Amino acid sequence: MAKHGRAITFLIADEHGEIREAVCKYLSSLPGVRVVGKALNGFETISKVESLRPDVVLMDVSLQRPGSLETTRIIKHNFALTKVYLTVMFDDASYRNEAFRVSADGMISKTDLKKGLLALMRSSQTQAND
Question: Regarding beta strands 33-39 and 8-13, do their DSSP bridges make them parallel or antiparallel, or are they unpaired?
Answer without folding.
Answer: parallel
